[in-house]
Design goal:
Length: 135
């Protein structure tokens, strides 16, 4: 169902609505003038910040996941983080950051050198053959 309708309940024509009512309303409220399309942007970003399910948002807006990811990715939860938080109710210690064992400075430098040499062995397109996670 359209959000904005005519008095007869029909969908409005956006350009006519914007030029006749939208801009005057924004000015009256002392809001910077912007296009009516910005209402969708505000809705999508608010939904993403609230943590709604992406599938629901796709259905509400008619915007595909790929487009949502491309245009609103910075407001989306990072893949997996939101799902891992669901385990917290079961056991708060699950997936919590663990302290890494500390190495003596000399051993730490040697370990870092090994990691760098592993990264150098990676070639683009490798499917993690040497434990390389750089790609």
């Amino acid at each position: 169902m359209p959000v904005f309708t005519t008095t007869e309940g029909k969908p409005i024509e956006p350009k006519a609505f914007a030029s006749r009512y939208w801009y005057a309303c924004l000015r009256a409220l002392n809001i910077r003038v912007r296009g009516i399309h910005c209402t969708k942007d505000a809705f999508v970003t608010t939904c993403l910040q609230a943590g709604v399910r992406i599938a629901w948002l796709e259905n509400q807006t008619g915007v595909s996941y790929a487009t949502l990811r491309r245009h609103y990715g910075r407001w989306m939860p990072r893949e997996g983080e939101s799902e891992l938080r669901k385990f917290k109710a079961l056991d708060p210690s699950l997936f919590s950051p663990r302290l890494a064992p500390t190495l003596a400075p000399k051993r730490r430098r040697a370990a870092q050198a090994r990691e760098i040499s592993q990264l150098e062995k990676c070639e683009e397109g490798d499917l993690n053959p040497h434990g390389c996670l750089a790609h």
